[in-house]
Amino acid sequence: MGITAFIPGYGWAISGTYFLMDMDGTFGNWGQPSGFSAQQTSTWAREREQWAKKDVHTMDFELDYDPTKGICKV
Questions:
Q1: Chain centroid offset of residue 7 CA
Q2: pTM of the model
Q3: Is residue 2 within 8 Å of residue 22, measured between CB atoms?
Q4: Cα dist. 71→10, 61, 66 in Å?
Q5: CA–CA dist 20, 26 (Å, integer)
Q6: pLDDT at res. 1
Q7: pLDDT along the chain (74 residues), means of 10
Q8: What pLDDT score does 56 carry?
Q9: I need a labelling partner for 46 at 20 to 30 A (CA). Which of 8, 14, 58, 66 fits?
Q10: What is the predicted pLDDT for the residue at 33?
Q11: Which pLDDT score, from 0 to 100, does residue 13 have?
């Protein structure tokens, strides 16, 4: 938004609107602590990692490549 503010006309309107909406709290409470501890977020990350390992799906297929024609068939 800082760079946008240097554009005359539209940039002033956009950055001014953003500034007023930010003052009103439209975009949340940026910079405020979330209330979650590092231990709690680490636990969530480990749980998500374990979940991701269980839910991995693979697909096997073969490719036939003919270098003389430059064609690849599945």
A1: 28
A2: 0.39
A3: no
A4: 52, 16, 5
A5: 9
A6: 75
A7: 86 90 76 72 83 67 71 58
A8: 61
A9: 58
A10: 66
A11: 92
Contacts 24+ apart (CB under 8 A), 44-51: none
**69 vs 66: CA distance, rounded Å:** 6
* Spatial contact of 19 and 13, defined as CB atoms under 8 Å apart: no
Q: How far is CA 63 from CA 35, 60, 66, 70, in A?
A: 51, 10, 10, 13
Enter the tokens of residue 40. 């709690």
Phi, psi of 33 (to 5 degrees): -60, 140
Whether the CB-CB separation of 66 and 56 falls below 8 Å is answered with no
Tell me how far apart the alpha carbons of residues 19 and 25 are, in angstroms, rounded to a whole number.
Answer: 10
Q: CB 18: neighbour CB atoms within 10 A?
A: 15
Can you tell me which residue has the tokens 């602590």? 33
